Amino acid sequence: MKLSFVIPVFRNEGSITPTYQKLYDLVQSMQLEYELIFVNDGSDDNSIGELVALHEKDANVKVLSFSRNFGQVPAMIAGWKEVTGDAVVTMSADLQEPIELIAEMIAKWKSGNEIVICHRNDREDSFIANNASLVFYKLMKYVNPQMPKGGFDFLLIDRKALEVLNQIDERNRFFQGDILWLGFNVAFIPYNRLKRTIGKSQWTLSKKLKYFLDGLLNTSYMPIRIMSLMGIVFSLLGFIYAIVIAYNRLMHNTPFDGWAPIMILILIIGGLIMLMLGIIGEYVWRTYDETRKRPIYIIKDKFVKNEKNN
């Protein structure tokens, strides 16, 4: 049995070698054939230097290096397309996932689960990060009921499921939704995400917002349906209010004047229209982005066994 690892790297200088050493000790203790695929996502520190040193030390270490920063999901996709093992474990290089869980993941995979997901039951992060993650994945659970409350990016995928996953050719992907959409047998393992001890997280607020939009728009028609529902509700309310005004004016000669109520209605309706146009614009942009067919990543350097491309 051969086990592959795909590990995106972005400004992970200092944590790459300890991650490699822990994984190496694990596969040696379990007597597994292995390959480690590190994907350098345009890091501007010495991450690539560490990776090349590991490749020269261990021929089972493959290194893909992007021409610039394309994002974590493109890095995972690039790594998945290089996998040659019977199963692949995808994880980060920040030492926040308990590597000892991999043995349990393998056991669940061997028992018939094509996908094994380690989901975050709790996390030793800041108050803001914890609550932002909780809100995000609670919303995602409405879109995909299988989504665990803490989300996931530490998982094992069987070769058969991976081949289907690699057939998805889309941009702006929400990979967690893609994994659950496949329909294969899934096992869940809860764990507490460890506090980062080396470096700092590169998962910025703008990246989180972008990923939130990808998750909301790429896996569901819910925003469009909400817009339609809001349009129906406001149309009905406006129609009822117009009947009330007409009735009281004709039957009781009641004047309906006042600048403030009119402005409030204009501001509310105008704000809703702008919000709806923004949502439609996001869908239009994604459609346009798909039609351009640009690559979602560019590999600048590749270091694999008996091969070096620059």
Features:
alpha/beta, 310 residues
How would you characterize this protein structure?
With about 300 residues, the chain is of the alpha/beta class. The protein has helices at about 15-30, 45-55, 70-80, 100-110, 125-145, 160-165, 175-180, 205-220, 220-250, 260-290; strands at about 1-10, 35-40, 60-65, 85-90, 115-125, 155-160, 185-195, 300-305, 305-310. Helix 2 links the parallel strand 2 (about 35-40) and strand 3 (about 60-65). It starts with a strand and ends with a strand. The model has no long low-confidence stretch (mean pLDDT about 80).
Low-confidence stretches: none
Number of helices: 10
Instruction: Spell out the helices and strands N to C.
Output: EHEHEHEHEHEHHEHHHEE
Q: Taking strands numbered 1, 2, ... along the chain, how are they ordered across the largest sheet?
A: 7-5-6-4-1-2-3-8-9
**Assembly form of the protein:** single chain
Taking the sheet with the most strands, its summary is: 9 strands, mixed
* Intertermini distance: 31 Å
Mean pLDDT: 82
Q: Note the overall shape.
A: elongated
Proportion of helical residues? 40-55%
Beta-strand fraction estimate: 15-25%
Number of strands: 9
Q: Please give the radius of gyration in angstroms.
A: 25 Å
Class by alpha and beta content: alpha/beta
